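For the sake of transparency, this paper describes our internal protein records without simplification. Because each token names a local backbone shape, the row as a whole describes the fold. One such record is reproduced below, unchanged from the form in which we store it:
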Amino acid sequence: MKKNRNLIIAIAAVAVVAILIVYTAVNNGRASVGTDTADSTQTAESTDSSSSESADSTQEVTVDSDNPSASSSLVITVTDGSVTSLADYPVEDYVTLGDYIGMELSVAAVEEVDDGSVTALAESYFNSLAVDYAAEMTAGQLVEEGDTANIDYTGYLDGEAFDGGSAAGYDLVIGSGSFIDGFEDGLIGVAVGDTVDLNLTFPSDYSNNPSLAGKEVVFTVTVNYVTPDMTDDNVAVATGGSYSTVEEFEEFCRSYLEYYAQYEYQSDLDAAVIEAVLPICTVTEVPDFLYNMLYENLTASIESEAAGYGLDGETYCSYFTGMSMAEYVVLMADEYAPEVMIFQAIANAEGLNPTQEELDEQVEAYMTYYGYETEEEVYENMITRESLEMYLMQTLVADFLAENAVITETEE
């Protein structure tokens, strides 16, 4: 399971926003990492206040793209450029570690996967897969009460289609009483693929459209398909032959739920580790190359996340955070950089920096997952070696701290 989680985290390293969600949630409830200067020392209260003020502010933050660290509120060490890997930087000179062995952690126990959850997921997933094959699966099948029929319909009054009387691809539960009397009953016994005319009369007290009250109309209805039953044959079709029986498909869904429950537990455990270790450590300075690397990664990740919503990074940040992108990224980099320094100091003290073999394993995973043919393509197009090395280091340290912690599992 740990190897699988490392792969997930390594892939997530490319999308740093996913990691920041965890860190942001932790930061909201803890004292932040301190520095030696009064100007740059922060607390959870001051951070929250700063965030709130930033969200309400219309101030535009301009960041030097060549040196974003110049905008940081942290104490930044300007390096000569010869060191670009945090593992090669003397973090011990700037980090004071607390007693991180035997920390007390509280996390919710791994959620039990019950049969009901498995059935619900299997049915939901099957329906989402089967919709593309539903007409094929149910061709010629007769509509029965209780079926969900996907229909196209047009209503005619005196031979003319009336407003609000037409729809395409509408899912109607037969017997639900959603439509006027006679509509749903008139579809019972109609074969999938057939078209029928339903001669109906609107109720005399029809309030949705009073102009139709009491009027005789004709609905022309085509039954496109009914929601397919989850049978062995239909599962085979919907999954492209990956699973040939309902039992196999449900076992896949159970495995997924068990994996996800373990993943959620591990994520909560990682968050608990962070919450416990950060307040007992201090960071006096952060190197500019680390800060600038984080700023660049964060910016790229936000822009990638924004693209998923059809937005640019600036609009995305304005909408979701109330800040400009530069302002938000500086705020997050200020929070994140000292945390990375602490993890690196622990990695150095405990010999937890990733090996070349571990780096190669993750790069190979990228190549398989994303279809790259060479390591060079991964490092050029996805993530730098320094960034991957840093995120794998964090994973190893988080595992180490959890393995050496006193963990109390709760029922929540």
Remarks:
- The chain is about 45% helix and 15% strand.
- The longest helix spans residues 246-277.
- Residues 128 and 363 are 33 Å apart (CA to CA).
